[in-house]
Design brief:
This protein is an all-alpha fold. It has two domains: 140 residues; 51 residues. 87% of the residues lie in helices and 0% in strands. The chain is built from five helices and no strands. Helix 2 runs antiparallel to helix 3 and helix 4 packs antiparallel against helix 5. The chain is rod-shaped. This is PspA/IM30 family protein.
Length: 259
Amino acid sequence: MGLFDRISRVVRSNVNDMVSKAEDPEKMLEQAVIEMQEDLVQLRQAVATAIASQKRTQQQHNQAQSESNNWQQRAQLALQKGDETLAREALQRKKTHTETANALKGQLDQHSTQVETLKRSLIALEGKISEAKTKKDMLKARSSAAKAQEQLQGMVGNMGTSSAMAAFERMEEKVLQSEARAQAAGELAGSSLEAQFAQLESGDVDLELEAMKQQMLAGSSQPQAALPGEAAPQAQTQAPKDAAVDPELEDLKKQLDNL
């Protein structure tokens, strides 16, 4: 491949790319409809011209046929009067007009065929223009919707990387951290409260244990019943209040007060 061919291909590809990028669907559709309407105007003018030509040919044909009939009648009249020379001349004129009428009849048939063809083309073009307008409106609506969707997606994409969205993300992270700290503090407070109640419950157990000890000591200090036949032992003097228990009980009370 020669250098100029390569350059030409590069230029054409760049031009095609620029043209493709410059094509706006809405403007292109509008321009296409305008061009079709221009073709419709030209076709209507062609139909009108063909119909006018058809009418002129029809008039010329009718006139030539009328002249042929007139010269036919004159030939008959001259023959009736015994003038064969004049009758022959009239028939010659009739022949000329008849040939003209026949030629015009051929042209008239051609004009009629042409007019019918142009009329059918005109009707078809009008239908295509109507269909093109409907499609144009639909495609314009779809193009507008696509542009709006593309713009919205672009806005969403920009929002994802913008400083505003980054600020929202930072604030969300801070809120999550605050919630985590609050939850941890709540758990710590709950565990401390449980420990306090456990300590109180253990104090109650100690008190109950001490009370059981006192009951056991009191039971062991009561005099035993005398056996039958034996004299009841002399009741011992009631022992004074246990001096070892009271200080311990006082210490326990102080510990409870200090909790």
